[in-house]
Amino acid sequence: MNKRQLQGIKVIVFCACLVPLAWAAIRAFGIGSTSLGPNPVQELLHSMGKTGLNMLLITLAVTPVRQLTGLNWLIRLRRMLGQFAFFYVAVHLLVYALLDLRLAWDTLAVDITQRPYITVGMLAIVALIPLSVTSTNAMQRRLGRKWKRLHQLIYPIAVLGVVHYYWQTRGEESAALTYTFAVAVMLGYRLVQAAELRAKRKRAAQGVPHQTLNPP
Question: Residues with Cβ < 8 Å from 91, sequence gap 6 or more?
Answer without folding.
Answer: 21, 48, 52
